[in-house]
Amino acid sequence: MNDANQTWVEQIFLVPPSLRDNTADADRLLAALRNRLETDTIIAEIGLLRDLPDRLRQWGYQARCILFSDGNVFYLVDVTDPKGQPPCAGLAVDLGTTRVVTRLINLETGAVLAETSFENPQTAIGDDILTRIHYADRPGGLDHLRDLIIDGLNRAIGELCHQAGIGTTDIYLLAVSGNTTMTHLFLKLPPRWIIREPYIPAVNTPGIVKAAELGIDANPRARVFFFPSVGSYFGGDLISGILFGKLHRSDATSLLVDVGTNAEVVLGNREWLIACAGAAGPALEGGVAKIGAKAGPGVIDTIAINAATGDITFDTIEHSAPKAICGSALIDLVAHLFAGGILDIRGKLVPEKAPGRIETDDGIMAYVVVPAGQSATGQALVFSQPDIDNIIRSKAAMYTILETLTASVGLALSDIDTFCVAGTFGSLINPRSAITIGMLPDLPIERFRVLGNSSLEGAALLLSSRHPVTEIAAIRNRITYLELNVNQEFMNRFSAAKFLPHTDTTLFPSVTVPAFASSLPDKMRKMVSFEAAASIC
Amino acid sequence: MNDANQTWVEQIFLVPPSLRDNTADADRLLAALRNRLETDTIIAEIGLLRDLPDRLRQWGYQARCILFSDGNVFYLVDVTDPKGQPPCAGLAVDLGTTRVVTRLINLETGAVLAETSFENPQTAIGDDILTRIHYADRPGGLDHLRDLIIDGLNRAIGELCHQAGIGTTDIYLLAVSGNTTMTHLFLKLPPRWIIREPYIPAVNTPGIVKAAELGIDANPRARVFFFPSVGSYFGGDLISGILFGKLHRSDATSLLVDVGTNAEVVLGNREWLIACAGAAGPALEGGVAKIGAKAGPGVIDTIAINAATGDITFDTIEHSAPKAICGSALIDLVAHLFAGGILDIRGKLVPEKAPGRIETDDGIMAYVVVPAGQSATGQALVFSQPDIDNIIRSKAAMYTILETLTASVGLALSDIDTFCVAGTFGSLINPRSAITIGMLPDLPIERFRVLGNSSLEGAALLLSSRHPVTEIAAIRNRITYLELNVNQEFMNRFSAAKFLPHTDTTLFPSVTVPAFASSLPDKMRKMVSFEAAASIC
Predict the structure, then answer these.
(1) Which residue numbers delimit the RACo C-terminal domain (chains A, B) (predicted)?
(2) A373 with A409, same domain?
(3) Which of A215, A329, B465, B525 is deepest in the core (most CB within 10 A)?
(4) Which residues of chain A are within 8 Å of residue B235 when distances are taken between CB atoms?
(5) Is residue B160 part of a domain?
(6) Chain A residues lying within 8 Å of B206, measured CB to CB
C-alpha cells in the first residue's frame, strides 16, 4: 500500500473463516491490519474484542477500523460499522498557556468540521506558568488545575460537536500540542521539577493516553496523542510547529520562531535541527506597557505616523474609541517614531522632533498617542520612556537569541533561506516594522513566512494522516537543544542589539537611520552597554 | 546483559539528571530499561509516571522495576522502592474446566510462596464445557460465569497471600493457562462460536490484560498474561505444557498427550510441531462408568486381580469402605481382567473365567468388583459390560488419535523418543496398564515421562524468567494443527484399536495375549468394525 493519504481509518475486508482457516476473529482482523499497516505491533484492548465476533458476522466480515500510533506501537482504537454514517472525528488541541484553540476534523477526509477557542481557565489561578507551577504544589492544587483545563476542554467539545452535528462519542482521536508545563498540568503530572535546577520534566514523551482516563468527553475508547517535548523549555507545541513548517524536510535552512513571552527558536533543515528558548520579555506582546493590551474592542491594531506632519493615524478593533494599543501596533509605533527621528538610536525620545506630542510627568517623558479628549477612558494614551525601554530590551533579547543560535552553527542570520514566524502574536507583526526596530533580521521580505497557529496546524496534520507520527519522533530526536548562557559574548550581542535597529547598521541595510543619530560618542555606547548588562539579569 | 536467569524484576541505577543531561525522569528510566531489555518498545501508563519524579528523588535515582511482556511489547508494570521488603509476587493459574490450580511465586527468585487449588465454581452451571457455552448465551449468563471464576480466584488469592504472609497488592504479574473456552469465560469473551462450525474463537492471543479490568484482587497495576491458543480445541494450557515439556527445544522427537475427556496431542521437536485434539470420551476419567468417580475418600485408586486365584485386592483413598473406582484404577482393572482372560480381545466378559464374579441383570453382564456386603453403599460395585465397552471405545479413540497424528508425518508410534503424559489424570495412570489395554503405544517404559500439571508448571516458568515469553509465540506459530477427519482410514484404525490390546498384536510385543482369544473368526472382525463406525458418530 502506498496511498498518497493514508489515514487513521482503515476499511478492512476479511476473508471469512472456514474449516480450512479457523483463525480467531480478533487474530484474523489484527493479522489483516498488521499486513495493511506493515507493523508487528497492534494493541487491541480486551473490551473491544468482546463484541467483535457478533459485529464481524453482522457486517459480513468487513469493518471500519480506527487506529492510532505514537510512532512505535499501533493501537486499534475501535472497530465500527463499515457503512456507518456519522464521520469518525478527531480533535486537534493547541494547549496554550493563555488560549486553547481546538479544531474538529473528519479523520477520513481531513475536512474541518468545526473550530473554537477559549481562554485557558487556569488563568484564573495565574496568567503565567510560574504561578501555576507553584499552585500545583499546594494540596489539591494540581487536581484543581487539571480539572479547570479538562472542564474547559469538555465545554469546547460540546460546542464543537453541536456545531458539527455529531456526538461526542464520534470523537475517537485527539492530538494535543502544548508547552511542557501545560502538558504536565493536563496530564496531572507534577510540574514541580520543571522550574528547579536542573529543570527536569516528569515526562518528555507521554505518547498515547486513553481519553477516558483523563476525563475527556469523547468516545469511551478514544485515545489522545501528546506531542513530545525536548525539555522543560521546549515543548510539544514547537515540535508540532516544526512538523507543520516542514523545517525537517527542507534542503534549505529555515528558522522558526514563536514570538511571545518566550522566544522559542529552531534552526535547521533535513540534515540537522538546533533549538533554543529564552525570555524575550512580555513587553513585545504589549502585556507590560501601560497602554498595551491584547486584542479586543477599542484596542488600536493599526497605527502610522506621517513623517512630514507628525500626524498619527490609527484604527481600533470594532472601530470603537481607543483605549489601548495591541502589541504588534506598539512595534509599528516604535518603528514609526524611530523613522521620524522621534526616537534616537538608543530608543530615547527626542522632544524637539515631536513638538506638542511629548509631555513630561514627574521627570518621565512620554509620547502622547491619543489625547485625553479622544480616548475611550477620558485619559490620554501615552507611550512612556520606560515602556519604550522595555520594548527595546525585549526586541534586543529576541534578536540576540536569534543571532546566538545562528552563530552557534557558524551561520549568519543572512544565511537563513526561510524565516517562519509562528504563533498568533507572530502572525500580527508587520515584518517591516520588526526589521526597522531590529527585532527580526533584515532579510528580503519574501523570505518571511507567517505560519499562524502552527501548533494547532501540526496537531491537525497528525490527525489527518498516518505519516506525520513517525516524523515526530525523528524531529524530536534530531533536535540539539542549545542552552543559552548569558555570558560575556551574549551580553555584548545584547548590548549591540539595544540600539535602533542595531549598533552595526550594516546588518540592516534596508533600514534608513535618521542622519542625526548615526554617530554616537563612544562614551555613550559604553554607558548603554553597562545598562544592558544590569537590566537583563 | 546475558544473565542465566533474567527475571521480570530489574534493579535500575540511573545517572541522576544534571544541567548537561536534563532528560525527563520517565524518559530517563525508560531509556535505561530499553537498553537493559534490548527493546524499542516499553509502554508505561501515565498513572505510573505521576509519582515517578518524587519517588526517583527519594530513592536516589534507583528503582526496582517490574516488567512484563507478551513477547512483542514490554510493559512497565510498576516502579517500587529498590530496598522494598515484601517480595514482588507472581501468580500462576492453571485454569482447568474442573479444577483450578494456583501457585504464588517470588518473581525475583522463582521460589514457591504458596499453592492451592479449588473446584472451578462454574461446575455449578455445568460440568462440561458445552453446557457452559450454552449458558453463556443466556442473558447475563456470560457475566455470571465470569463472576464465578473471578470470585473463586479471588478467594484463592486471599488464601495464598495469607499463607505467604504478603498482601494481595504484592502480586504484580499473573499468568493464566487454560483451554480456549475457559480463557474466554475468564475474559468475558463470548464463547458462542467456538462450538459452531467453523469453530472460531473470539481471540487466540489475548496477550496481556490489566488485572483490575478483570476484577482480580491484586496490585492495581498488575497485569495478566494469557497463554495463546491455536484454535477452539487446542488451548493455552497445551502451549504452556509444551513450554514446560520443552518439546520445541529437543532434537529428539517427543509426543505430549494430555489424557482426559479430550485427548490433546502434540508431536515434534525443535524443527517442527504438529498437534491435534479429539474426543477420547469421558469414560477414561471414570466420569461415565456407573462405579467410576473422581478421587475422593472411599474411592478405589489401586486395584489388582490375582491371576491364579481370581482374588481382588484394592486400596481406597483414606482407606474408607469402597464406594467407587477412580479412572486410573478402572484402566488397571481392565488390564487385569484382560490379562486374566476374564475379558476377551473384543473386551467382552468371559463368565467361565471368573466363576462367582459375574452376574447378569436384565441380560446385561457385569463383573462384581466389591460385593454388596463389603461396599460403603451396601450395594455391590459392579463393572458392567456397557461400562467396559465405553472404556474400550475411549482407549481406542485415544490410540487412533495418537496413531493418526504420528502417521501424518510419516512416523510410527515406535519412533517416538519421549512420550510425555500431562495432566493430573495422566499422572495417575499406570503406563503398564495403559499399554496392556492398548491405550498407549508399547514403548519401553523409560521413554514415558509423567509431566504432572504441565499447564501450571509452564505458567510458573513464564513468571520466573523473562525468556519463555518469546518462546511461546514461536511455539504457537510453529504448530501445525491437524484437523482430525473421521474418514474411512480413521475408522479402520479405530476399529483395529477396539481390540485388546489391538488387532495387530505385533504392535504390542510386550503384552501377553491370552491364548484362547488370539484367533477371532473374520466374520466377527467385520461385525466389530461395523459397530465401531456406528458408535463413534
Answers:
(1) 253-511
(2) no
(3) A329
(4) none
(5) yes
(6) 46, 49
Asked if B22 lies within 8 A of A187 by C-beta distance, the reply is no
Among candidates B263, B270, B264, B329, which has minimal Cα distance to B296?
B329
**B26 near A CB under 8 A:** yes
Residue B288 touches partner A, C-beta closer than 8 Å: no
Query: Rounded distance, CA A344 to CA B250, Å?
Result: 89
Asked if residues B264 and B426 have their Cβ atoms less than 8 Å apart, the reply is no
Choosing from B390, B416, B438, the residue where a domain stops is B390
Interface of A with B in 173-202 (CB under 8 A): 187-190, 192-193, 197-202
| CB of B222 closer than 8 Å to CB of B163 | no
E strand or H helix at A91: strand A89-95
- How far apart CA A156 and CA A150 sit, in angstroms, is 10
A519 touching B, CB under 8 A? no
Mutate to test the interface with B, among A46, A76, A194, A233 (most CBs of B within 10 A): A46
Cα three-residue angle A137-A142-A147, rounded to 5 degrees: 160
- Cis before residue A501, ω within 30 degrees of 0? yes
How much is the pTM?
0.90
Mean pLDDT, rounded, of chain B: 91
User: Does the CB of B537 have a partner CB in chain A at under 8 Å?
Assistant: no
Is residue B94 within 8 A of residue B154, CB to CB? The reply is no
- Cβ <8 Å between B187 and A46: yes
Q: Do residues A323 and A400 both lie within one domain?
A: no
B474 located within any domain:
no
C-alpha span between B284 and A279 (Å, rounded): 82
Q: Are residues B409 and B273 in the same domain?
A: yes
- Tell me whether A26 touches chain B (CB under 8 Å): yes
SS3 A85: coil
Contacts of B187 in chain A (CB under 8 A): 46, 50
Q: Are B213 and B340 found together in one domain?
A: no
pLDDT tens for the 537 residues of chain A, in order:
445 689 999 999 999 999 888 899 999 999 999 999 999 999 999 999 999 999 999 999 999 999 999 999 999 999 999 998 889 999 999 999 999 999 999 999 999 999 999 999 999 999 889 999 999 999 999 999 999 999 999 999 999 999 999 999 999 999 999 999 999 999 999 999 999 999 999 999 999 999 999 999 999 999 999 999 999 989 999 999 999 999 999 999 999 998 766 789 999 999 999 999 887 766 666 556 778 887 789 999 989 998 888 899 999 999 999 999 988 899 999 999 999 999 999 999 999 999 899 999 999 999 999 999 999 999 999 999 999 999 999 999 999 999 999 999 999 999 999 999 998 778 888 999 999 999 999 999 999 999 999 999 999 999 999 999 999 999 999 999 898 877 899 999 999 999 999 999 999 999 988 765 444 444 443 333 333 333 332
Q: Does the beta-carbon distance from B483 to A200 stay under 8 Å? A: no
Among B17, B50, B80, residue at a domain's last position: B80
Q: Does B143 map to a domain?
A: yes
Among A29, A199, A200, A225, the residue to mutate for chain B (most B Cβ within 10 A): A200
**Residues on chain A touching B41 (C-beta within 8 angstroms):** 41, 72-73
Which residue of A24, A43, A213 is in closest CB contact with B203?
A24
Asked if B202 lies within 8 A of A17 by C-beta distance, the reply is: no
B231 contact A CB<8A? yes
Q: Does A141 touch chain B (CB under 8 A)?
A: no
List chain B residues with CB under 8 Å of A49.
Answer: 189, 202-203, 206
Write out the DSSP string of A445-496: GGGEEEEESHHHHHHHHHHH-SSHHHHHHHHHHHEEEPPPP--HHHHHHHHH
Q: Which amino acid is at A461?
A: L
Total number of domains constituting chain A: 4
Do residues B49 and B176 share a domain?
no
CB contact under 8 A, A41 and B41: yes
CATH number, residue B264: 3.30.420.40
